[in-house]
Amino acid sequence: MKNHFDNHAMNKLRSHLFLLSLTLLLTCASFAQTKTENVILITLDGARTQEVFGGLDLDILKDKTRRGKVEDTALYKKYWAPTPEERRMKLLPFFWGTLMKEHGSVAGNRSLNSAVMTTNKMWFSYPGYSEILTGQAHDDVINSNDKTRNPYPSVLEFAKRKLKLNKNQVALFGSWDVFNWIGEHEEGAVTINAGHEPYELAASAELKALSKLQNERLSPWDSVRFDYFTFRFAMEHIKTYQPRVLHLALGETDDWAHGGDYAHTLNSFHQNDQQFKELWETLQSTPKYKGKTSIIITIDHGRGNTIKDWTDHGEKVPEAQYIWMAFISPDVSLRGEWKNTETIYQNQVAATLCRFLNLDYSENNPQAGKPVARLFSK
């Protein structure tokens, strides 16, 4: 009887081991088929879902129009159209006309039953960016925008270690100076250029002059430079060092909104769209990147939905927990807007970024959100 039991147990064990081996084999095969060799994470600080999916908000424009008819304003003439689809195309023509139509997809339009949410309950910048870069909310620890070192290793550090990359091959360029503290747990682990600091790695005379100019052409904010400089430095870094992992963190969509300046807010959206176009064209003309690069575009937090609170976010503005997320990848066939889909979360960005690179982010943080399943289902 004992021998019969042992034989039965052994056969059962062999069966389990076979199934486990087959699963691992299929998983490895699936990972091996991906085309992605590089990833770019783009964040637009506090860029509302309302503008991304609906373009110009007429209620806000009316509230901001102090004299004359709203129809006579420059913003109305530039960005207004009868439907949300037409308005957003005027505001973000490259994003909607090329990226989402031909190369990628976007989640977060709740009118189509697609939602993207934070898991942190802070709904402001440092907690949001930390959730993006570490894959987990830490509301008990990260609950301010203070310049304190992130106590948790970031996905940038993990990718650098797993892919055996040098410092210049993993980079973060941010308009907000606090990225020097958010982006890495170990100071100096990756290349970070943020705020008004000079771009020391500038190779051309033009970029060296531009690096100096950023502190002569000051922005209205002590801790944030104009996105123009951040973008130009990032593009120089791409052309010179060809990083495999890059985080481009743009910020004007938040800073102008905080000041209630709707004209500059909309024009910043439009400028960012033009920057998407230049970045995309550079990637397509560079053999290292063309057909080998996945891009994730998202935001750290949303903001209010009315003329009274569109400038704000944080714990007292529940609308700020709703964000959006776009994916452009040679390994993903999804196109356009997500409809009638499960809610996805900010804590899934890090694992998704790693999944594009055939890395398992749970090695770095077992509690992190998982890769967005819909992107990788065949």
Tell me the helix content: 40-55%
Tally of DSSP β-strands:
11
Structural class: alpha/beta
Percent in strands:
5-15%
End-to-end CA span? 47 Å
Element order, helices and strands? HEHHHHHEEHHEHEHHEHHEEEEEHH
| Low confidence ranges | 1-5, 18-32
Strand order of the largest sheet: 5-4-6-1-7-9-2-10
- What integer value in Å does the Rg equal? 22 Å
Describe the largest sheet.
Answer: 8 strands, mixed
Quick summary:
With 378 residues, this protein is of the alpha/beta class. 42% of the residues lie in helices and 12% in strands. The protein has two domains: 1-33; 36-376, 3-Layer(aba) Sandwich (Alkaline Phosphatase, subunit A), CATH 3.40.720.10.
